[in-house]
Amino acid sequence: MVFSSLTFLFVFLPVVFAAYFLLPKSFRNYVLLAASVFFYAWGEPVYIILMVLSLLFNYFVGREMEEKDDNPAARKKCLLFALAVNLGLLAVFKYCTFLHLSLPIGISFYTFQALSYVIDLYIGKIRAQKSLTAFALYICMFPQLIAGPIVRYIDVEKQLKNRTVTLASFGSGVRLFLVGLGKKVLLANAVGAVFALITGRAASIATLTAWVGAIAYMLQIYFDFSGYSDMAIGLGRMFGFKFNTNFELPYTAVTITDFWHRWHISLSTWFREYVYIPLGGNRKGVPRQILNLLIVWGLTGIWHGAGLNFLFWGLYYAGFLILEKFVLARFLEKLPALLRHLYALLIVLVGWVFFFSESLSGAFTYLKSMFTVGASGFADALTGSSVFYHWLLWIAAVFACTTAARSLRKRLDKTRRRAWIVNILYLVLFFLCIASLITESYNPFLYFRF
Amino acid sequence: MNKKYRGSFDRHLGILFTAVLAVFLIVNILVPDRENSFTENRVLAGLPKPSAYTLASGTFADDFETYLSDQFAGRDTFRNAISFVRWVGGNREEHGVYSAPGGQLLEALKEPSEEVLAANIAFLNDTAAARSGKRTTVLLVPDAGAVLGHYPAFAVNADQAALFEQVKEGLSEGIGWVDTAAALKDSGVKKLYYKTDHHWTTAAAQAAYDSYCAAVGLTPGEFDFYTVSRSFNGQLSSISGFCMLERETIEIATPAEEESVVLTYTDEKKKKATLYDREKLTSSDQYAVFLGGNSSIIDISTTAKTDRSLLLVKDSFANCFIPFLTGNYSRIVVVDPRYVTGSLNSVLERYPTDDLLFLYSGNTFFENSISGQ
Fold first, then answer.
1. Active-site residue, from A100, A261, A264, A304
2. Which of B146, B236, B265, B324 is deepest in the core (most CB within 10 A)?
3. What pTM value is reported for the model?
4. Closest residue of B to A169, CA-based?
């Protein structure tokens, strides 16, 4: 099931709310767990078996590791076994494309969550979870199950046992959820339809149209993914969980380093904590640091998919991060802010071309239509219609990427007088989302593929 | 910020949100499901029946979402609202329908593939050749956009006038051609096309009829116009969601001199004594008031004082044109090849009438192979 569906909003959610808040408090973890299993099984019941096996495995590995507390060799064996099994499953289902298995939804996310548990347990940062219910809930809690954020066990350990929801914290969760729903349904789906229209053209694309298409995708993936994260964090809050921010206005970045501090923060944190730092990070000299960065970003690339274009996309960013760290940083600092923004946005935009293309050669073909004038010329009717038939959408989307949107929202949220007007605005937003969900056939979800 | 105040602000939103979810859950359960959508002119999805297979494969989940969306309380209102918001936001094209100034909806003018164009011209010539000695006329009706012109900026359209010229040039010697575009332009008729439907109006059809009579040497009759509907919202609206609130009138033309007709719907094996189906005026497709909509073969006998007969091969644009012909022919056989099953040629051979008329709108003629091959 996805959040941006009528089934979720108007059948699943009210029933879960009723069960969660009307039954005694001691039932809450059971209710959430049952709801999560149903959420996952709806529309894709077969792979639920895989998820249950994975969580049972990690639970028992955790218990085993805790029991072998005084035997470092045995603990290490446990860890290696757990790494092998978790990464092995991921490899089989995600990267053995020749097996033609469909990708189990959320496997990249829940496997990484399980790994954070096992590794932190090995390091001794946390204690093993004794309650199978609590552990199962950590792995498959429906708000972040299928598209993150990747929640580290250490961050929610206490909340799995004890958490409080007040009507006010519930309401603040609603606010975040509605913002996320609006990003996904009103912005991402709409710019996504423009992108699909432009790339759906078999013949060559006019130069300016290719730019419009790439920018449409750039906006679509941001609103799609960050909208989903907002909804997840908001839902978590409605049930008493506090998840960390996953997106921090990434398109306001002034460097690529800055961009990756703002984009999919839970994934970059994971790779930093469990790959980069264990490999030695920047503590073993410059050549080793460069190698570590290449490894981390190569892995980040292929985390998104088995295609070579994803590997290239990851290494492309490694290249710019290394360049910025050792060469560009001092030049960039001297540039005016506007130029630094443009630099970062251009690198990111070209990066998305590699990301959305089906293959590397497809990416270069698309880049060629962006940077040269081909058979379709510099601009055509499609350029005009894709810009001017959606002018309000473009303005709204670009605005929503900026700090201005955030400060407006903060100001609105702080409005003391006539606060009810702001609440009405949130309801209007909700009704527009419902209207779009009812009428639009175009409602894909990009991060489902990862 | 006042924390206590902020808290009550969030509390209100929490309550409002939960209330909206609960209200729609209950209303959706209580409001009975609809079978058809009047405004969208289509069958709506019903509650799917679960089976082991559909549950396991996920099709049940998809069907259930479609069901919820089709049967959602206030669906039409939501649809109108979002379509209006999108229109305000600049949207001028939806599912191939353009929203032109003045609330005029226009289909794009389609560019034919070379094969389709060649096949359709060959079909006209071959059919005419098979009936040597009989008179054949071709009447292509330009689509609204080709006559009214004012598309929104950046619309992509074929040059339909040039395409018509190409068809005319491709016709064999002896086949008559009616210049409908000129007839419509010179007619002085104010409203040639509906705003929310792709069809031409009855008044426009009369202008083309006069032109046809002049071309084949018939005397055009006198007609009185009556309004039969003031609540017409056409298919372009249904398809696009634009102008859903626009209501138009439909007129019918009846001969000044009283006459009677008998219509035999050959394949459906039924007879009627009227050219109009008034029941259709309360359906979602009111244009079907003419002849009751499209049928494969309709054999019309009239009380006209002549023994001339006509074979009319056509699309739906002919439906409001046919009533003008009943005073000029004692028998009119109407064939719509899109609905004919089996061999079209054997159907056409079955009716060796005096005259043959092809009446098509530009888009139908250019978009498909009209012989169905």
1. A304
2. B236
3. 0.86
4. B10
